[in-house]
Amino acid sequence: MNEYNFLNLSSFEFENFSRDILQEKLELFFESFTSGQDGGVDLRASLNLDENIIVQAKRYTRFNDLKSTLNTEIDKVKELNPVRYILITSVGLTPDNKDVILQLFQPYIHSTEDILGRDDLNNLLGLYPKIEEKYYKLWLSSTNILNKLINSTVYNQSKFELDEIKESLKVYVQNESFNEAIGILKKNNYVIISGIPGIGKTTLSRMLVYRLLAEDFDDFVYVADSINDAYSYFEDGKKQVFFFDDFLGKNFLETGLKVNEDSKLIKFIDRIKNSKNKIFILATREYILKQAKNSFESLNTPSLDLVKCTLDLSKYTKTIRAEILFNHLFFANIPLQHLRNLIETKSYTRLIDHKSYNPRIIETFVKNQFWENCEPKEFSKKLISFFDNPESVWLHAFENTISKGSQITLLVLSTLGTPVLLEDLKISINSFITANIEKYPLTIDSIEFRKIIKELESTFISTKMDSNRKIAVEFQNPSIQDFLINYIDGKYDLIIDLIKSFSFVSQFFRIFTFDQVKKEYNKRIILDKKILKEYVSKILIDFDLFKTSYIFRLNYSESNTFTWWKNEEFFYGFLNQILIELENASNEELKNFVVEKFNQNIQPKRMGYSERRAYVDLIGKIGESQIDYDGAKLISDFAEHVDTIDSLKDFSKFKDVFSTQYEEYTITDDFNQKFESVIHNEIENTAIEKYKSLIEELKEIELDFDYMLDDEISELTQKHDAYEAKIDAKFDMSDYEYEAREYEQEMEREEQYISDLFDGLMDK
User: Fold this and answer.
1) What single DSSP character describes residue 739?
2) Which of 119, 135, 151 is the last residue of a domain?
3) Do 15 and 130 belong together in one domain?
């Protein structure tokens, strides 16, 4: 039997729970009433015109508090004169406690059986499992379930901390999106949760994961950075749940997906679809998903739309919006006099119907306790002002609650992008102070820097340490980055101050652009021509001093640890990005500089994927006429480092610039031997479960090089088909049928329900 304390239910929820449990026990219908001034009646069952059973539900922690309240209820009960009075409480009661209550309410309480304490309620739940199923907050936060969650095999720094689970469940309100997502999972074994920032994508995804783990799934895999994580932990025979939060990545709009990430993702999804014991949950911001589908043909498929569960405010009924607001306010430490102002003015109705309603605004308001410097009579206006201007949540905190050093840190961090190593952030801040010492006469040494990070961590940023004790910084959520972009936009002097201080290549492009066309999906500050001079000057003067700050998370499957990994190769990528961003600026001086720098470093060498791709792109952009290198030698030198299919694809692009030299080289025996060696090695080193992707790549190579690979493709296809035949039939999720919460749509009943709900704030 589970041992619930019932305190994760609000007073209003506890009353409803008490009603349902009594209706099952006594087989009577009980009326429900407002949670506010109840006149001694929470629930009532009418036996006839003159005889009633009266019930009160008291949500308390300690018996002394309960007893103090009951002493004030005696006169009300006498006036009501019920034939029977029943008390239900969340307090654990001893026999002596029950005897005291029985004496207080004689003759209305007939026996101690009409005094139901915490232990009695838990006992009744064992008899009526449907009630337990309905109140998901109870069983999902029970000791048994939580122990199962935290003791399950959980990979990849999943963030499934016990306290976080409990806090999420307190304020979560189940809505139709939960059941929609469950329905999609039943049919497909995977679902994409999308929506605007702050709408609750991660929360819904977590609730789905909790539900599945609470049943009989064995493992949970948090896909932290790349779909490769999912491949690493995939185990046949185990019932596994995979969750890829923000699966297109925070940096997608800046850098795109990693090499073959789109094809690997689709391939993994195909594998999940055909598995009987795997679930895959993905979450992303909707505008990024749209851009990704425009950029990658593999993602622009009708099948992905069929499994998409899009969260938007239209799916949050008025009642659900009210319950989300109520839960956050009820479980916060807001003084009762402040809440009374909200209730008496009924200002909660404006918040529920507000055009800017967003759970994150409420969460941020509560988390930062913005009522602390607010008079009770101004509480409603204060809360409404945050809805009227959502960015004021961060503006207030930014301008009034943190130090000047912390403000500078956030501004600099916005230009770097996250995650970023703490040491690189410190370099950038010192560079900003040095470049603008007269404006910002600050000294930020190691001690002061630690203070700044500590100050920001509770609100604006989070930090994560890897297995090598390297620490990286990230924004707490995307709305902070959006706020900072809007804050900087239009402040000419501040933009110049930032540009003068740049130390890392990403700072030029993360939040700034010269593209005069605004893009909804890629929010950046459009710079005008008067800033161009400073921008170009910084690149020309300090080009050789710039470093890279871009990092990503590298996970170690065997030890369940990770490290922050930085690719130090960025030279060609930087030059290429300059040309991309400056296309609209028409700056010949900078273009000539890029051509000169490239020619000085044109000798082909072994490079990682991104640098090699940038190198080839630069050759295409610069053109044969401006390249200071013999075309035939460039091709043969580059070919020396071709040893993978990806590098073969890049090599094929030389035909667009050096067509004659390319044709002459690719018919030589040397190249044919290299070509065959690359194909052979790829086949030999590719696991059978990855053959499908390899087959598609070989088909592309056939077209790129006009080379017949029919035999290789046929053999791989046969092996892959045999492997696929062994995969079990699709997983039947018929055991996971969940009841949707139904709400009355009639306006009068809905308004009455909401009014009763918020009256319950005074029962905290």
Assistant:
1) P
2) 135
3) yes
